[in-house]
Amino acid sequence: MEMEESLNLFYFLFGFFFFN
């Protein structure tokens, strides 16, 4: 579960930078 949360955050940051 912790790994899933970490991946979720990673994808969120990746998307944020990608959109920026």
Tell me what you see in this structure.
This protein is mostly helical and 20 residues long. The protein has one helix spanning 2-19.
User: Which spans have pLDDT < 50 for at least 5 consecutive residues?
Assistant: none
Q: What is the global morphology?
A: rod-shaped
The string of secondary-structure elements, in order, is: H
Any idea what the radius of gyration is?
9 Å
Question: TL;DR of this structure?
Answer:
With 20 residues, the protein is mainly α.
Break the fold down into its secondary structure elements and pairings.
Layout: H1 2-19
Which properties best describe this structure?
single chain; 20 residues; mainly alpha; 1 helix
